[in-house]
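Annual report, structural modelling task.

Input specification for the cobalt (II) ion complex:
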Amino acid sequence: MTMKINRNDPCWCKSGKKYKTCHQAFDEKIALAAAKGHIVPPRSIIKNAEQIAGIRESCKINIAVLDYIEEHIHVGMNTAEIDKIVYDMTTRMGGIPAPLHYQGYPYSVCTSVNEQVCHGFPSEKVVLQDGDIINVDVSTILNGYFSDSSRMFCIGEVSPEKKKLVQVTKECVELGLQEVKPWGFLGDMGQAVHDHAFANGYTVVREIGGHGVGLEFHEEPWVGYNSKRGQEMLMVPGMIFTIEPMVNMGKADIYVDDENDWEVYTEDGKPSAQWEIMVLVTEDGHEVLCW
Ligand code: MF3
Ligand code: CO
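The model returned the following structure:
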């Protein structure tokens, strides 16, 4: 239950501004959408300017870490080296790697190679080979604010088929991003992602999606890509979420390694790619916070 706020009361978003000049009109629009039967965001995931500023700082570390890896990743490197780079760089910059000990996850980063879909464990035994594709998924906590993004890297000479998978997956994220604007729906984004993957003969993993992020590692909403235009949660200014489709060259089916309950693979052993960006819905569109 929410108490009615008077026009001159401080806004619920803790901006310090009066409700009437802050989120009153916003709340009215949301109430209208809810009355029409749409899924609307809870207040808990709407960030104010101060929170957004803090999240941006966290994102800067995330971007710097991925930029460094992009420059230094190479054939013959093992993925435990990537884990060490992420831990060392993040902590040196004052942050904490968000994956470390998250629900028992034992490393600072996820490194998922070829048919590994996500949550790959960094290991000295995983040595990058010529022709591999790898997703490096970095998440950072800085002063309590969370950031999360991932990139694909092609190691040495990669086959045209795998290169195309990596490229199309990136395009999926870019096309999804174009749909991110206030008072649209998450399904607008999801369908754009899915349609592009599908048009290229690929499939999109159904069980694992993106998520709200910023004040927590994983917040509402859950962000899927098998959704339809005009459906799912209403996108509103101050919302932050990830777009991170896992696109498979073969079938969409996946399984989780039952030895560790983390590492996810394609059922058919064909390659999978993923890019992840973190996006803020603004008053007139969107802002990519990290990539
Ligand atoms: N970075 C991943 C994501 O995009 C989080 C993986 S959970 C972890 O949501 F524990 F492996 F970090
Ligand atoms: Co994520």
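The first helix runs from residue 24 to 35.
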